[in-house]
Design brief:
Layout (H helix, E strand, L loop, with lengths): L1 E2 L12 E6 H11 L14 H17 L3 E5 L7 H5 L17 H12 L3 E2 L6 H14 L3 E5 L13 E8 L3 E5 L1 H8 L6 H8 E2 L4 E2 L6 H11 L2 H6 L6 H9 L1 H11 L11 H4 L7 H11 L2 H10 L7 H4 L4 H6 L2 E4 L9 H8 L9 E8 L6 E8 L3 E6 L5 H12 L5 E3 L2 H9 L8 E3 L1 H8 L8 H8 L4 H4 L20 H30 L2 H21 L1 E3 L1 H26 L8 H11 L7 E2 L2 E2 L3 H11 L2 H25 L5 E2 L2 E3 L9 E3 L11 H7 L2 E2 L6 E7 L2 H10 L2 H8 L4 H10 L8 H15 L4 H8 L3 H14 L1 H17 L1 E3 L5 E3 L8 H37 L5 E6 L2 E6 L4 H13 L10 E6 L8
Parallel strand pairs: 1-7, 2-3, 2-5, 3-4, 5-6, 10-13, 11-14, 14-15
Antiparallel strand pairs: 6-7, 8-9, 11-12, 12-13, 16-19, 16-22, 17-18, 20-21, 23-27, 23-28, 24-25, 26-27
Length: 925
């Protein structure tokens, strides 16, 4: 966020009061950010909350208020609507996606310790004006953040309005001089001008033919609105007559736009609105639920916290113990060549073996990694080394320690650290613990698991503050006087702090995992999965760039052809990526039915256009949708080509701590989103081929794993029998639901039942099902009822899952993976329903993720134990892709079928399909 002037200096003794119009700024945030980019995995829109909170944090950082309040309007009328029923009546209906976001925002503000204020019968503007007047009487400087120009009347030498001129990211500082320059009147007379001109957004009509310049001239000439009215008969011309004809409107406007400054709010700004500090746990919980990873980081950096002062004052606190760590740096405290001696003195092998905390600085990507600095610590002493400064003896000593499998190491992001060190020719072995994985299992909704975030959450230590330079207080032997300007020294100090905190952090997390019942899941599954993924990422997958180049050429032609078809259907050329031009063609020229209204016009997002095409079948939409699809595929191909490493392979990064359900994701590039059910996607898969020294690729995937888990967990005999029948599952289930023979089931019936089955497993509501199937909610509800009539135990299971989770506060998978859902008991309906959908989704999708992870570990261990050269390359949700060494195909297939089929015991068999081929497409089955 930025303002048009320099932010103010530090507050004076009386304090600085920041007042915000909650609804006004939330609406602006809603229209400033696209809804489709701010939706949680449970389907809750959050763009208004995100935009508001982002703006608020920027205001705290830039304006440094000591006191804060956010005012909200209440539902129902006010004294203004009682006098004039048409007041604000022309405003658009509240967008469906905005519904509930104000309540979520209020929950965030409560966790932040920010007072929210309402007053029945009055608007937020009146609350702000009253508090602004009170604050100034108490000697405070006041800032009012509002998108309502009526707030300009509060502007004084001690009160500035921060008025948004671009979304909520750019605010203009409306001072007395600024108001007068822009409107030609002093702030207290701005409502006089508005009474004459009118206010469209409030549905207050002004005097026809009288604009701001004329109104301002009259106000200056006759000393205010009362003078204008008193001299109305003297004002000549059409404007004067228009004024006389509409005096009643002017007087009404003035009554309504006058902000009250004497409401009885029962608030003393100095005492009641002081920023006392956020509730760290409550804020983390709601930020996690809203999936605001970046805002969580910013909040921890900017907000004061109610518990911030306790830890640092205790000499035995984690923070105090961390500050007592002796830190040495190669090149400052340890001379080149003396690293081995330092390690022998400070980190010697002991009985019992003591672990070492390791922090690696550098590029952590597979195939492109590079370590530039490392830090080692046992919690009492720490050594930090810029790897470019090491002499051969130092490098040999460090390399030997890092490669020692018998010396346990605690490493955050052990997988990325391995890649960074491996690129330097340094082996990392003996990784015993990874706090990022431990933190993930303790709080799977948390959005970040870096050492700083974990130390803040579990130890109450602000590493950033500890590692910042302090005046006249050296923090380590290698701190330079110019530390603030010495980036390498600052980086080294931060690395040393992270290394030193790893051991106490891991101990705290292990205790948390023990309490949460997930310690075995950590040691027996997540840590072995991380080791398996490290090998997969390092191997990468071979890619034929010539095939990708051919696909790119084909897609270029498809993009051009689709654009030409769209131009022909529209009758002229246009920018198919411009929402504004598309709105003109669709709704003005082609007269198509209007889509959802947004601030910038009628939406042209993908869902809206697809729905419009179903209604109209218009060729312009057909070509437009084709154009968008081709561009998306072309971008995928372009990204893949850029990702090919010098070894001719793509090394993706598997993310283990992103999805709360336990599913893995893939990034840089994402190899899990290449379409598998379209011809275009399969043609892209042809480019992924077998590498040199290997004979084929092998794919193995689970058939309908979520539905098998549903049958197992629910114990529904009808569903279990459907699997045992040997018939096509969805056709069999559709026959049961509709009471017809299997041969009578239509493709549409099968498709609807398939969507229903998977929708239940993913917590899909009746409304969501109707939207997915393109039917009305009544038909979707009927299908749901018919389904449950046949599969009653499924219904009972789903009901039980939510109720059990409501009692426990969490739900869990077959492997014991927990997902904490405190919002199941929330008074906020939106948050409660989000949590209910998550409770339905987590046990089934999470169990499927755990089974696939177990299969990965078992397959990798079996390959190694059998001495086979074949290796796993990719995991695509319920599919594994392996590269097979010559002569090993049959043995590997048999082993994969056995390990995947035996990864869990279910009441229905885990069916595994296997295929082989020289490329990914050919290996499909």
């Amino acid at each position: 966020m930025s303002t048009t002037e320099t932010s103010p200096a530090a507050p004076d003794a009386a304090g600085r009061l920041l007042l915000i119009d909650g609804h006004s700024m939330a609406f602006r945030a809603y229209y400033a950010l696209p809804v489709e980019n701010f939706t949680t995995t449970t389907g809750q829109s959050t763009n208004a909350v995100y935009g508001f909170v982002s703006m608020f944090l920027s205001l705290l950082e830039q304006e440094r208020p000591t006191h804060v309040a956010v005012a909200f309007d209440l539902p129902g009328g006010t004294f203004r609507t009682q006098e004039y029923a048409e007041y604000k009546s022309t405003r658009d209906e509240t967008p469906p996606a905005f519904a509930g976001q104000v309540e979520l925002l209020q929950d965030v503000l409560e966790a932040m310790g920010v007072p929210t204020v309402t007053s029945p019968g009055y608007e937020a503007d009146d609350i702000l004006a009253t508090l602004a007047a009170q604050g100034q009487r108490e000697g405070m400087e006041v800032l009012v953040c509002s998108g309502d120009r009526d707030s300009f009347q509060t502007v004084t030498d001690r009160c500035t309005v921060l008025y948004p001129i671009k979304g909520v990211s750019t605010l203009r500082r409306m001072t007395p001089a600024e108001v007068e320059e822009r409107y030609g009147v002093a702030p207290e007379r701005y409502p006089h001008l508005a009474a004459l001109v009118g206010e469209t957004s409030d549905n207050l009509p002004g005097v026809p033919g009288v604009g701001p310049k004329t109104a301002a001239k009259w106000i200056r000439l006759y000393d205010g609105l009362d003078g204008v009215i008193a001299h109305a008969d003297e004002i000549k011309g059409k404007a004067g007559q228009s004024l006389r004809d509409h005096l009643d409107d002017v007087l009404r406007n003035r009554r309504l736009n006058h902000l009250l400054t004497d409401l009885d709010l029962g608030i003393d700004p100095a005492a009641d609105l002081k920023l006392t500090g956020a509730d760290r746990e409550a804020l983390a919980r709601i930020m996690d639920a809203l999936e605001f990873r970046n805002l969580q980081h910013r909040s921890e950096r900017i907000l004061p916290f109610a518990d911030a002062g306790g830890a640092g004052t205790d000499t035995d606190s984690p923070a105090a113990r961390l500050e007592a760590v002796t830190i040495a740096a190669v090149g400052h405290d340890v001379a080149p060549g003396d690293v081995g001696q330092w390690l022998g003195t400070h980190l010697p092998p002991r009985e019992p073996v003591t672990p070492i905390g390791l922090d690696v600085v550098g590029v952590m990507r597979p195939g492109q990694g590079d370590a530039t600095m490392i830090a080692l610590s046992d919690g009492a002493a720490a050594l930090v080394a810029d790897l470019s400064l090491l002499d051969p003896a130092d490098e040999e000593a460090l390399t030997a320690l890092l490669a020692d499998a018998d010396r346990p190491k605690v490493v955050a992001d052990a997988k990325g650290s391995w890649h960074a060190l491996h690129a330097r020719g340094i082996d990392l072995d003996g990784v015993a613990a990874d706090p990022s994985l431990a933190g993930y299992l303790c709080r799977p909704e948390q959005r970040s698991y870096d050492v700083g975030s974990l130390a803040q959450r579990w130890l109450g230590i602000d590493l950033e503050a500890l590692s910042a330079p302090q005046d006249d207080q050296p923090q380590s032997a290698f701190d330079l006087e110019s530390l603030a300007d010495d980036a390498p020294a600052a980086t080294a100090l931060a690395a040393a702090r992270r290394a030193a905190v790893l051991l106490p952090l891991q101990r705290a997390l292990e205790e948390q995992m023990r309490q949460r019942g997930v310690l075995d899941l950590y040691t027996d599954l997540e840590m072995p999965v991380a080791a398996t993924l490290t090998g997969m990422e390092d191997a990468g997958i071979a890619v034929d760039d010539a095939v990708l180049a051919a696909r790119q050429t084909e897609l270029d032609a498809r993009v051009t052809h689709a654009a030409e078809g769209a131009f022909a259907a529209a009758g002229h050329e246009l920018n198919l990526s411009s929402p504004k031009q598309l709105q003109t063609v669709l709704f003005d020229e082609l007269k198509m039915p209007k889509t959802r209204r947004t601030k910038t016009g009628y939406t042209t997002d993908a869902d809206a256009l697809a729905s419009l095409y179903v209604k109209t079948s218009h060729p312009f939409l057909e070509h437009l949708l084709e154009h968008r699809d081709a561009i998306k595929l072309r971008q995928t191909v372009e990204g893949l080509r850029k990702a090919i490493a010098p070894d001719g392979r793509i090394h993706t990064t598997f993310q283990q701590t992103i999805a709360a359900t336990g599913r893995l994701s893939s990034t840089d590039p994402n190899l899990q989103n290449i379409p598998a059910r379209t011809e275009e996607g399969m043609r892209i898969r042809e480019a992924f081929t077998v590498g040199d020294g290997y004979e084929c690729l092998l794919t193995a995937d689970y058939s309908q794993i979520e539905m098998r888990i549903m049958a197992h967990l629910s114990g529904d005999e009808a569903l279990i029998e459907a699997f045992r029948s040997g018939e096509d599952l969805h056709r069999y289930v559709a026959a049961m639901v509709h009471g017809i023979g299997i041969d009578e089931v239509t493709p549409q019936q099968r498709g609807h039942v398939k969507a229903m089955s998977y929708g239940l497993a993913y917590g899909l509501s009746t409304f969501g099902l109707a939207r997915q199937l393109g039917v009305d909610t009544a038909e979707a509800a009927g299908l749901r009822e018919a389904y449950f009539a046949r599969f009653g135990r499924v219904h009972d299971y789903l009901e039980h899952v939510v109720e059990q989770a409501r009692r426990d506060g969490w739900t869990q998978t077959m492997f014991g993976r927990r997902r904490y859902l405190p919002d199941l008991n929330s008074d906020n309906r939106q948050r409660r329903e989000m949590a209910e959908r998550a409770a339905l989704n987590a046990p089934i999708q999470g169990s499927a993720a755990d089974i696939v992870k177990q299969a990965m570990v078992d397959v990798a261990e079996s390959l190694t134990a059998a001495g086979l050269r074949s290796r796993m390359l990719l995991q695509i949700h319920d599919e594994l892709l392996l590269e097979i060494a010559p002569g090993e195909a049959d043995a590997v297939e048999e082993m994969v079928r056995a390990r995947m089929g035996g990864a869990a015991e279910l009441s229905v068999p885990l069916d595994v399909s296997v295929g082989r081929g020289t490329n990914w497409r050919a290996a499909a089955h």
